[in-house]
Write a sequence for this structure.
């Protein structure tokens, strides 16, 4: 009997990729999403992917929040494609390698697979648990910008602005508990994150509002 899993916020970036991982692992997924920061097109494309049993990311689903993105990589992609005129870097005087904040970045597929591993473990234990999912490696904002430029060949215009209240200089995840308990670790590096982010944005310049030609669906086996 297939397991039924409820995903809240499935139409979003992490939710859609987690749903893809769960469906391909044999779960029946039930979606709950009010679409306040996402788009119904995400669900349509997920259905297309799962009907054809695609088990890799093809640039059909990606991060497309309503309004300006809060995360660095989608901001970079929208600047590169011309949706945002320039990137704002908050703070250039932190005690880091180049004065900009350092954070841990993780590929959304690794994050989705981490959720899947956690569900499998929780099936066999009672109570509540928590795990940090990350690479354990920190990159500064400028390091991310320069890596994006090197990989895509696109120059990113940016400007410095004052620090944001509450931002700390650097932090990253300690995934050692997830490695031990779940047998999970991030497999994709920064280059792969940037390649896949740019693949999504370049194929969908206006996000989910972009025109999209759907191939004919094959019958589900």
């Amino acid at each position: 009997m297939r397991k039924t899993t409820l995903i809240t916020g499935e139409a979003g970036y992490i939710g859609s990729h987690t749903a893809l991982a769960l469906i391909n692992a044999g779960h029946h997924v039930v979606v709950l999403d009010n679409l306040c920061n996402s788009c119904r097109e995400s669900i349509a494309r997920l259905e297309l992917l799962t009907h054809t049993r695609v088990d890799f990311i093809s640039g059909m689903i990606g991060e497309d929040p309503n309004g300006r993105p809060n995360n660095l990589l989608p901001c970079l992609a929208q600047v590169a494609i011309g949706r945002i005129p320039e990137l704002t870097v908050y703070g250039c005087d932190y005690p880091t390698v180049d004065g900009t904040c350092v954070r841990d970045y993780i590929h959304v597929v690794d994050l989705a697979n981490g959720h899947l591993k956690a569900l499998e473990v929780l099936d066999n234990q009672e109570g509540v648990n928590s795990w940090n999912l990350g690479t354990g490696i920190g990159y500064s904002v400028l390091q991310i910008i320069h890596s994006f430029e090197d990989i895509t060949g696109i120059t990113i215009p940016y400007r410095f602005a004052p620090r944001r209240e509450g931002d700390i200089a650097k932090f990253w995840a300690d995934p050692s508990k997830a490695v031990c308990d779940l047998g999970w670790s991030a497999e994709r590096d920064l280059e792969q994150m940037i390649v896949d982010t740019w693949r999504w944005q370049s194929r969908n310049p206006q996000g989910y509002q972009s025109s999209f030609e759907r191939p004919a669906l094959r019958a589900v086996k």
Summary: Residues 72 and 141 are 8 Å apart (CA to CA).
